[in-house]
Write a structure and sequence with these properties.
Mean pLDDT: 96
Distance between the termini: 28 Å
CATH architecture: 3-Layer(aba) Sandwich
Largest sheet: 5 strands, mixed
Number of domains: 1
Number of strands: 9
CATH class: Alpha Beta
Helix content: 25-40%
Radius of gyration: 14 Å
Low-confidence stretches: none
Number of helices: 5
Structural class: alpha/beta
Shape: globular
Length: 155
C-alpha cells in the first residue's frame, strides 16, 4: 500500500453513486473535495464516521468543501446506508477497487487474526487545482470530522 501524498495530482475517476448515477471527479473542478475511503457501509465504525460528516455538512459547505465517500459496496447497499442514516453527501461504489488502487489505499489488512486485502480508512482533501491538498490518515471514526474541520479552519 502506497497512498498518494499532498501535492500529488488526484486521479480522475468516474463511479456510480448510491442512485446509480455516474459521478466524475471532474464534475467538481474548481472546488475542494474531501474524498474519504471507508471499508464497509452500515458497520459501526463507518456509520459513526459518516454521521460525523453528515452533522458537519453545513460547516464543510461554508468552507467550500464537497464530500464523496467511496467503498467497494454495491450501489444498492449505499442507497440503503444513505436512507437509513439520512446522509447528505454522495457515496460512490468502487466494486472492483480500481479507484482505491489509484489512490494507493487498497492493501493488506488484519482483523481478528485474519489477513486480507481491503480499503484502508484514509481521506484526501483535493484542492481547487486538482492536487491533493491534505491526507488524513491519523484519526478515529468518531473524530474524523473534527480533524478535517480543524484543518480547514487553520488552512
Amino acid at each position: 500500500m502506497n497512498p498518494l501524498k499532498a501535492g500529488d495530482l488526484a486521479p480522475t475517476f468516474s463511479l456510480p453513486d448510491q442512485d446509480g448515477e455516474q459521478v466524475n471527479l471532474t464534475d467538481f473542478q474548481g472546488q475542494r473535495v474531501l474524498v474519504y475511503f471507508y471499508p464497509k457501509a452500515m458497520t459501526p465504525g463507518c456509520t459513526v464516521q459518516a454521521c460525523g460528516l453528515r452533522d458537519s455538512m453545513d460547516e464543510l459547505k461554508k468552507a467550500g468543501v464537497e464530500v464523496l465517500g467511496i467503498s467497494t459496496d454495491k450501489q444498492e447497499k449505499l442507497s440503503r446506508f444513505v436512507e437509513k442514516e439520512m446522509l447528505n453527501f454522495t457515496l460512490l461504489s468502487d466494486e472492483d477497487h480500481q479507484v482505491c488502487e489509484q489512490f494507493g489505499i487498497w492493501g493488506e489488512k488484519t482483523f481478528m487474526g485474519k489477513t486480507y486485502d481491503g480499503i484502508h480508512r484514509i481521506s484526501f482533501l483535493i484542492g481547487t487545482d486538482g492536487k491533493i491538498e491534505k491526507v488524513f490518515d491519523d484519526f478515529k471514526t468518531s473524530n474524523h470530522h473534527d480533524i478535517v474541520m480543524d484543518y480547514l479552519k487553520s488552512a
